[in-house]
Amino acid sequence: MKKKENLFVWMAVLISVLGVNFGLVAQAVQEYHEAPMLHELVLQGKLPPVEQRLPKNPQIIEPYEEIGQYGGTLYRVFTGPGDFSNYKKFALDALIKRTPMPQPDVADWWRFEDNGKTLVLHIREGIKWSDGVPVTVDDFIYFWNIRLNPDIPAYGVSSYMRDPAGKIATVEKIDDYTVKIHYSVPYPMAINTLFGEIVILEPKHYLIQFDPRYNPNIKDYSLLTQKIVGNKLTPDWVGKPVLGAWVITKYVPGVELVAERNPYYWKIDPAGNQLPYIDRVVWQYVSSTDVIPLMAAAGKIDMQARKLSFSDYAFYKQNEGKGGYKTRVLTCGALGPAIHFNYDTRDPVLRSLFRNKDFRIALSYATNREEISKVFFKGLTEPWAYCQLPDSPFYPGDEYAKMYTQYDPARANAILDRLGLKDTDGDGIRNRPDGENLSIVVDYSPAGGVISYSGFLDLIASQWAKVGVKLIPNPMDRSLLWPRLEQSENGELEAYLWKVDAALNFAIRPYYWLPVESGPEQMYKSATRWYLTNGKEGERPSESWLVTAQSLYRQLLQATDPGEQIALGKQISQLIAENCYQLSTTTLVGVAIVKDRVGNVPDKWIDDDITHNVSVIEPCQFFIKSGK
Question: Which residues pair with 82 in a beta bridge?
């Protein structure tokens, strides 16, 4: 039953076949089976029979290698509250699964009507939350309204809620399992953002007890905000109903996070065995990613890619026998660490420079990408512009992928000289027009990437120093970094280091690529507001090419013809690369370790945040081998 490796050809962007249902018909299963720990609860009368816990059409997951065995505990590591995605991506499910093409998950079918102006979604009938309460479209609508509520800051309006005309869509409940989303203009690309998010609905029956709109004893939205899914783990999540394979049952900050099987999980294998196979997952807290290799060598980690640094690849290989695991190199659907300039930084000189194409190009020529690849990725990556990857339907061509990526400090110096940025005091650092040294503070999270971000910035700093530009690394925990990104329009942030998601389809997370959608990582928020409000708020982009790209993107969102979508996407990609929108470095590879006792883990997969990383290989079908 081993699935053939699929190097994603991202045609999800082309979901414009209007009026056609997307969904898979479940195979007929004669009888269902359950984990021994759940069967015991059934015998005790504490749990309904498995047939009553599953939906009418359970999602069938074909195991990667074989039908698994029930039981056991799988051990992972996490870095604390800011690493909540470690749990979300491993244990939770989405309304529409993130794969090369949108696939049924909680929603078992969908279609467009009215020439792309109406999206019809159908939730799997009979699916239940982990506490046994049925899931209905009321949960979808409840969370939709949460996102529209300005008093709940954890979420804002997502791009699937706002159409290309800038108007908020309306939702219509058809029945308990069917909802319609009405847009004012055709919006076939809405499906991209719907399957680009892991949380589209929340348990209304559970959350209303914390909602002042329903509970008069609650005075504000602070507790509700803590209970809904965000980027920070809190004890409030213990026992919260979920739709994923494992429910959080214990969280001791600074010690561990424990999640146990969801008795109402709605996926099965072809033999009718309710998933997941594994009873519980334990995330062991580590205060620093530096200790992860030592824990792996000691055999304390069963399966992990997240938070593993490729810088430690040699160590992992050398200690495979000792740790009882195998090391795997993963292809990534993102670009490697990039320096993202904040176009809204409050420093007027830096703001002007960041918005100057020639300045960005100069720093690109000052960056030695070949050296970066050799030092951090064993030469397995290649220099890459701020450009889509070859498997993207929007890949504009090799010339754009390599644009401004050659290391040429002489050319960088010439451009910087032409911009009037000269070393006037002889200290080796160029001076700005106001006489100050030309320095750029780059925020980063040391535990945030597949390599050591500290060393990464140190290397780039040494390269830029050769052309007289001072880079100042500014480390902080991710829980502190993300609020700074969210508030970047206040101008305090100058730049930050992070990978570039959606390099296989920028339409899924466009905020990395253009000022057309809000998001923490969006580094031109004033221009984004200008775009989203049709010029009523924010600031018109300072560079004309960005205005053109915004216009093309609006056309892309409404295009119903696949050929037109591809053509528009390529035009946008060309503009982004030609104008060096942000400073990318190389392509990206990742590393994973899998202990010998864990079954059904593929040898290779695309490790990409767009597909929720490990989620794409269905952790629910992993199992612990008998006697191991």
Answer: none
